[in-house]
Amino acid sequence: QVPLVESGGGLIQAGGSLRLSCAASGRSFTMYALGWFRQAPGNEREFVAAISQNVARTQYADSVKGRFFIRRDHAKNTMSLQMNSLEPADTAVYYCAARYTGYSDSVHNRSDDYTSWGQGTQVTVSS
Q1: Neighbours of 5 (CB within 10 A)
Q2: Do residues 1 and 115 touch, judged by C-beta distance below 8 A?
Q3: Contact 33, 47 (CB under 8 A)
Q4: Residue pair 83/21 in contact by the 8 Å Cβ criterion
Q5: Distance CA 78, CA 40 (A)
Q6: Neighbours of 28 (CB within 10 A)
Q7: What angle do CA 1, 4, 88 make, to 5 degrees?
Q8: Of 17, 20, 44, 86, which residue has the fewest beta carbons closer than 10 angstroms?
Q9: What DSSP string describes 30-83?
Q10: Residue 100 CB: number of other CB atoms within 10 A?
Q11: Percentages of the chain per state (helix, strand, coil), in multiples of 5
Q12: What is the pLDDT, as a whole number, of residue 109?
């Protein structure tokens, strides 16, 4: 497992943009597939986006496709989620997650596939 720390959440008006970041604390996650999930009050945790270890593949939930963009920087040992055209329905706690894969182009959209999780960062979109 690798300790993960999210940052960048906040309160924003509908139509605005936010950029979330995820960093590995004290360890490298360059050999991990990474993902973002979110959980709104009363709802189950849901998949948002994923990126493979080798950066070759990404995957998005239909609800965010074309608005959200996942990136990773091996040199900086960070991952980000650029969120544009935010909607009130995007309001949730956002979590980053990691799964060790070694060199791989696999992406993972099931929460059970991930073994490391951050503490979450709140994103609130007002109408």
Answers
A1: 14
A2: yes
A3: no
A4: no
A5: 24
A6: 10
A7: 130
A8: 44
A9: TTEEEEEEEE-TTS--EEEEEE-TTSS-EEE-TTTTTTEEEEEETTTTEEEEEE
A10: 15
A11: 5, 50, 45
A12: 98
Three-state secondary-structure class, residue 111: helix
> Considering the chain, what is the average pLDDT of its residues?
96
Name the pLDDT band for 42 (thresholds 50, 70, 90): very high
Residue located via tokens 């999210």 = 6
Cα 98 from Cα 35, distance rounded (Å): 6
Q: Tokens 């939930």 identify what position?
A: 61
CA dihedral of 107, 9, 73, 84, whole degrees rounded to 10: 70
Residue whose tokens read 């997650």 = 97
The tokens of 38 are what?
A: 């979110």
Q: Which residue has the tokens 């979450």?
A: 120
Q: Hey, which residues does 11 pair with through a beta bridge?
A: 124
Residue 6: CB atoms within 10 Å: 22
